[in-house]
Amino acid sequence: MKFYFFHLMPSQAIDPTFLEKNKSSWINLPNTYYDPQKGAKLYHRYLDELEMADALGFDGICVNEHHQTAYGMMPAPNVLAGALSRRLKQATVGVIGRALPIVSNPLTIAEEFAMIDNLMEGRFIAGFVRGIGCEYHASMTNPGFSHERFREAHDLIVRSWTEPGPFEFYGKHYHFQYVNLWPTPYQKPHPPIWIPSQGSTETVEFAAHPDRRYTYIITFSPLASVRKNLLAYRKQCESFGYECPPEQLGWAMPAYVAETDEIARKEAATHIESLFNKFIMSPAQYKLPPGYSSLSSYQAVMEGKYKVRESYLTCDALIENGMFLCGSADTVVSKLQQYQEDMGFGNIAPMLQFGTLPAELTTKNLEIFASEVMPELRHMGVSQKGEIAAE
After folding, report:
1. Running DSSP on this structure, what letter comes out for residue 384?
2. Which helix (DSSP H) or strand (DSSP E) does residue 97 occupy?
């Protein structure tokens, strides 16, 4: 099993009553709520936490991309990955992930990632996503072209990493007379690619294809939805004629570990509830704009993920439905052992800071997770051949 500390970098210094006026933390939340003095301190605190994970022995740290929201202060995750690249001694950096369809020039992402891969001397994971619906409102990108632009941008980036330049690229959405990347990636043929997902059937088919075999990471979902989607991915691999190894599956979830189950609940409750009932809140039309997904994918995501968010989610409810992993080290280890045996994943990306969780509790969470959870699970989720090479 490999462990990746996943950070959202929420704007937790925000006025806690903001939802009483705005009903959303995305797109239309006035940026007057952002305090640069407090925000600057938060950035440095969050980078310190990511560096701490490296010192504690996590296999990697993960940042991601969101725009115009208090949910996560990472509109440019490459900047943060670059800042970390000279500080991390052992951990891999994962940008999980960049929203390909909303950019006008995907080669800029290819260049950014190649630079980070060089700075890290190969300790880098490239995460590609379509971006949740809110990103299409923020960028004014037509969601009806989301799948087309994602696949075309993906093909352009991978070709720019692997084919000698210069060459021409003329697609439906992107046109380049000269594709001639400098620098090229450190890892050959290119960095490993992860595909975080909310459960889209189109994404499963794309990531599992034998030409790609990308690591599929299910995010922010009830346990039943995690199980359903990871099983669907495994079956998709089988339909393509190969068995899915553990290294090709992952799960990202918020987690909190303390001395006992009771202490863990008491310390985490207010902060995990702030994540799910405040920071994550946005209208359905923001999350799933028309044309963004097929009807079957809409139905799967709504039933598997968004339906549970229609009412206030308490800490106990989140623990019960599996959206929040919380308890003593023994409890967390036992649950993850059971889940891994059931679902076969080889990577987990615990979000050990969430919502309004303060620095001292984040530090405590990181230290207990690293010292009492990770060693007990290292032996699980490893196939006979170990790691999958990028293809």
Report:
1. T
2. strand 92-99
Q: Who's near 195: CB < 8 A, 6+ residues apart?
A: 97, 127, 128, 129, 203, 206, 207, 214, 215, 216, 217
At residue 287, the pLDDT reads 83
For the record, the structure tokens of 55 come out as 């010192």
The pLDDT value recorded for residue 107 is 98
In this prediction, residue 309 carries a pLDDT of 55
What pLDDT does 303 receive? 60
Chain position carrying tokens 């500390």: 5
Whole-angstrom distance, CA of residue 230 vs CA of residue 236: 10
Q: How far apart are CA 238 and CA 219, in angstroms?
A: 22
Contacts of 92 (CB under 8 A, 6+ apart): 4, 59, 60, 61, 120, 123, 124, 125
pLDDT number for residue 151: 96
Could you say which residues of the chain have pLDDT below 70?
Answer: 294-310, 384-391
pLDDT number for residue 284 = 81
DSSP track, 149-218: HHHHHHHHHHHHHHS-S-EEEE-SS-EEEEE--SSPPSSSS---EEEEES--HHHHHHHHSTTT--EEEE
What is the secondary structure of 312-372 as a DSSP string? Answer: ---HHHHHHTTSSEEEEHHHHHHHHHHHHHHH---EEEEE-S-TT--HHHHHHHHHHIIII
Q: For residues 248 and 255, give the distance between their C-alpha atoms in angstroms, rounded to a whole number.
A: 22
C-alpha–C-alpha distance, residues 205 and 361, integer Å: 39
Q: What is the dihedral of CA 334, 336, 338, 340, to 10 degrees?
A: -150
Q: What is the pLDDT of residue 295?
A: 65
pLDDT at position 229: 95
Nearest to 344 by CA among 255, 225, 226: 226
